[in-house]
Amino acid sequence: MRRSRRRRTRRRRRVAVRLSADWQEKLETNVAYRRWYLACPNTGPLVSNFENLRCAETSTREEWDGRRPCFGRPFRPAGTLRCVTAPPLPGYRHVYSGKVRDLYEPEDDNSRLLIVASDRISAYDYVLASPIPDKGRVLTAMSLWWFEQLADVLPNHVVSADVPDAVAGRGVLVEKLTMVPVECIARGYLTGSGLVEYRQSETVSGIALPAGLVDGSRLDEPIFTPTTKAEIGEHDESVDFSYVEKAAGTELANKLRQLTLEIYSRGEAIARQRGIVLADTKVEFGLRADGTVVLADEVLTPDSSRFWPLDSWQPGRAQPSFDKQFVRDWLTSASSGWNRASGEPPPPLPDEIVQRTRARYVEAYERLTGHAFV
Questions:
Q1: CA within 13 Å, CB half, 124
Q2: Residue 87: what pLDDT?
Q3: What phi and psi, each to the nearest 5 degrees, are found at residue 116?
Q4: Residues 6+ away with beta carbon under 8 Å from 108
Q5: CATH 3.30.70.20 applies to domain 92-175
Q6: Domain residue ranges in the chain
Q7: Mean pLDDT on 254-269
């Protein structure tokens, strides 16, 4: 029995090496990599531990317990990445952590989830070391406000905002849904990755656009530009509508496109009345057991959307923004000293950038909702 078990272990390790040839040299030559790999919990095939865990601060099995998933690009020697640890909540089980949100399941009800928005901020597929104070509260309050504005368009996943005191203001109890495996994006303006594709082919997600558009150009009609839903640390890839049809079926794909564009159009009209341009937005949908499409996650926040001041909108240049583009701009400026192509994680944000980012999130909330943030 022991011999058979050892043989299976050796076979699994050989498979992992074949699938991850570039890691074989790292394991053989770098003690830090090898110690990390051997410390990973044995959950699932070795190759998943090998490539998908992305935290370098822990080196023992005990330190890893309850701390996955972790964020950043593939593993580097200790000290370069930060592992996210969700705080324990009495009466709830921690089941997942994303770039910003922590998910818990009530111990007495497996039909619900508690979603908690943290103050973490991500950029360029990294979770940054510097949190933005009150960011989670702003995102939660803004999503709840938008869910109310969209209630006549489709149902949303919110059950209650009555949550434990420890996460009050940033936690929401929601329905557990089957999530649609694509990111649904609507664009009313040309910028970002859409602009990059347009400059190459005058298309975005396979949709032909008029010649002569520039950064910040308003499109004649909003367009549906879905992407894949990538793992943490990987890039979402732009796809065309046929991809959504294959992933979700033609009927559901058409429904997702219609709802995404309707949500964008409603949000764009409301934002414009308040002096804000909604350039684009990403929404996520889930399905109830009866097939009902439900709006989930967050909606029309500075994390999921691009917001620009209407009075300074000027096509042909990068626009000032109310979203985390401000952080991206600093990271890629000479002031940060960070080379995005270096493979190294970004540096901590200076206090001034942190405070100015917080102010932008709060201003977006107050201008859109008309409520003071307290």
A1: 18
A2: 87
A3: -120, 120
A4: 91
A5: no
A6: 2-64, 92-175
A7: 98
